[in-house]
Amino acid sequence: MLLQQQALLRQKLLVLGSLAVGSLLYLVVRVGSLDRLQPTCPLDGSLRPPDAGQILLRSLQFKRVLLLHELRKGNGTPEQVHLHAPVQQLPRALIVGVRKGGTRALLEMLNLHPAVVKASQEIHFFDNDQNYARGIDWYRGKMPFSFPHQITIEKSPAYFITEEVPERIFKMNSSIKLLVIVREPTTRAVSDYTQVLEGKERKNKTYHTFEELAVDEATCEVNTKYKAVRTSIYTHHLERWLHFFPAEQLHVVDGDRLISDPLPELQRVERFLRLPAAIGRANLYFNATRGFYCLRFSPLFNKCLAGSKGRTHPAVDASVVEKLRRFFHPFNQKFYQITGRTFDWP
Predict the structure, then answer these.
(1) Predicted pLDDT at 317
(2) CA–CA dist 168, 219 (Å, integer)
(3) What Rg value do the Cα atoms of the chain yield, rounded?
(4) What are the two backbone dihedrals, phi and then psi, of residue 303, each rounded to the nearest 5 degrees?
(5) Taking the model in full, what pTM does it have?
(6) Measured between alpha carbons, how far is 148 from 304 in angstroms, rounded to an integer?
(7) Regarding beta strands 301-305 and 292-298, do their DSSP bridges make them parallel or antiparallel, or are they unpaired?
(8) pLDDT band at 31 (very low <50, low <70, confident <90, very high)
C-alpha cells in the first residue's frame, strides 16, 4: 500500500513538473515579445473572459510545450524535437510603413494574438546596405523564437520609402504579406516634424518651424523636397511596391481609425493574415489619461504604449494646413483608387 502511494505521488510530481516546464517554455517564447511597453495603466472597463479563438490557440500552445518536454525527455527522435521546438523564423509578414502612421501601435496590438510573435526592435535589414550585406542568416538571428504554428512579424517604417527595399524583400519571400498603415497625410507630416523637433530640443538645438520647412519661401508652394511631405505622398511609394507584389499581398490599415476604434482594423488584419479570430474587445481598453487605447493581455497583465507615443503637436498656421491638404488631395484620390479603400481625409 505504501509503495502504491509513493508511486502515485511520484506520478503526480512528474505531471506537475511537466506542467511547470511547459509553462516556462511558453513564457520564454511569449514574454520576449512584450517589451517596449510601459508599466501597467489604470484599468478602464469590465474584464471579460477570452473568446473561443483565444482559448483554442492558447490550448494548442500549452499542449505543444508539454509535447516538446516529453520528446526532450527521450521519447522522441531529434527530428520530432526539431519539429515542435521554438525556432527563429523569418517573418511571414512585414509592417513596412508608414513612419508616424502608427506602426508601433499596430505591431503591439497584433502581438495580442497568440499566433503572432513580434520582432521587438526595428531591424532595418532591407533599407540599410550594411545590414543587408550581412545576409539572410544574420537577419534570421535577429528574430524572436516562435513555434511553427506562429507567424513572426517585423516592422521598420523606413522600408516603405526606400527604393531598393521592395525588390530585396521579394527576393527573400515573394509571397510575404505586407502591411502599410497610413494616417491623414498632413497630420502625419506634422507628427513627423514633431518627433524630429523633440529630438532637437533634447539636444538644446534650434530648429525651423513646420511652416518654414513645408512651404518653399521662394515660390510659396509646398516644398516637395521636405522629407515629411514626400513621405505623405503615399502613391509615389506604393506604386514601387506594386511592381513586385500583387495588391492581394498588401493590406492598408487606417491609422486614424486604429487610434479611435482599433478592433475593426485589427480584425481586418487577422483576416488578411488568415489568422483565426482571437483579438476582442476584452483585449483593448481606452485610457483617458493617455488619450488612446491600451492593451490587455490577461486579467492581470495590462500595458500601454511608450510615453513618447501621442505627442502633442505644435500649432500650425491654418493657411499652411489648407495648402498641404489641397496639395495632397489628388494624390489621395489616386491612393483610394489603387487600394480600393476610401479614407475620411479632408
Answers:
(1) 97
(2) 38
(3) 23
(4) -135, 150
(5) 0.80
(6) 28
(7) antiparallel
(8) very low
